[in-house]
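Predict the structure of Serine/threonine-protein kinase PrkC.
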Amino acid sequence: MKKERHHHPDGSRQEPQSTLSDDHPIDPNRSDTGPVGFQLHDALGLGDADNLDELDSFTESLLKQRGLQINRRIDRGGYGVVYRAKELTSGESRAVKILLNPENSTAMATFQREWKVLSSKSLPGVHDDQPRLAPRLFFGESGKGAKPFLVLEWIDGQNVENWIAARPTLTCEARLDLCERIFSAYATLHSCNLLHRDVSLRNIMIHNNRIRLIDFGSACRRDVGYASRHSVSRVPVTPATASDRMLENESRGTVADEVHAIAKCCFYVLTGKPSHLVDPSLWRQTLSNSKVPRSIIENTLLPRMAQPTPDVSHPMN
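Done. Here is the predicted structure for Serine/threonine-protein kinase PrkC.
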C-alpha cells in the first residue's frame, strides 16, 4: 500500500506541513526535506536549524586561503548550506556549497555525487559547442579539517518558480516557448548519458534568457552499470514533481521518471498553479482555461503527468 502524502495548501516553504511530526517538516517543493518516510531532512544533517547559520572559522579560513570571501548565506542546498562569496582576485561572485555533516553517509554520498557529476567532461558545454547547462565547478575540498565544500559558478538569475510568479500576464505562447526550452535542456542532458533525478521548479534557472540546471546531488549516469546509481538506496527528490515510484523507492530514476517531472513543471509554467495542488481530474480543464492547445494537453502533458512513460518525445511545436 502506498503511503499517503499531504502537501501544504499554499505550497509555501516557510511553514511546510508535516506528516511525520513537527520535528520533521515536509515541504513538497524541496528535495532536502524529503518525501514522507525518507526523513532526509535529518539524514542530510539539516535537522538542527542553528547549524544553518554556522560557518566554522577553520572552513572560512581555508576559503580565504583559496581567495574567497564569504558574503552571505543564500539557502540550504541538497545537503548543506549555500553561500554567496566573492573571488578576491577577480571580484566575481561564486556559490559555495558547504556540507554540514560530513560524518553522515547520506549527506556525504550526495556531496560526492554532485562533485563527481560536475567534474564530468561529458556535461553539455564543457568540451563541446553546446551551451553550458550545469554550473561550472571551480574546485572542491574534502578533508584538511574543514567541512567539505564546492565552489561553483554563481548563476545570477531566477528559478522558474519565481520567474513565472513575477510574470502573471505572460502570454501562453511565451509560456509554451519556455516549456519547449526546458524539455530541450533535459533532452540535451539525457543525450550526454546523464540523469538529473531531482527535476523541480527551483532547480531550473533562467539566466540571461537561457535555461540552466542546478543541484546535481541526485544525478547519475543513465546506463545501469554506473556505480553511483546503485551506491545509495535513496536519493533526495522533490515530492511535488517526483513520480510515485521514485517516492516509494521503486525506481532509482529513468528518463521516463525525468520527463514525468518535467511535465509537472511545465504545468506550473503554463497555468501558474503547482500540479500537486490541483486535483488530477482537473488538470485538463486547468490547462484548457490557460489556453494551452488541445494537442499539447492531450499528446504531450497529460500522458506524462499521469505516469512515467517510455515515450519521451516532446512535440512542443
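The radius of gyration is 19 Å.
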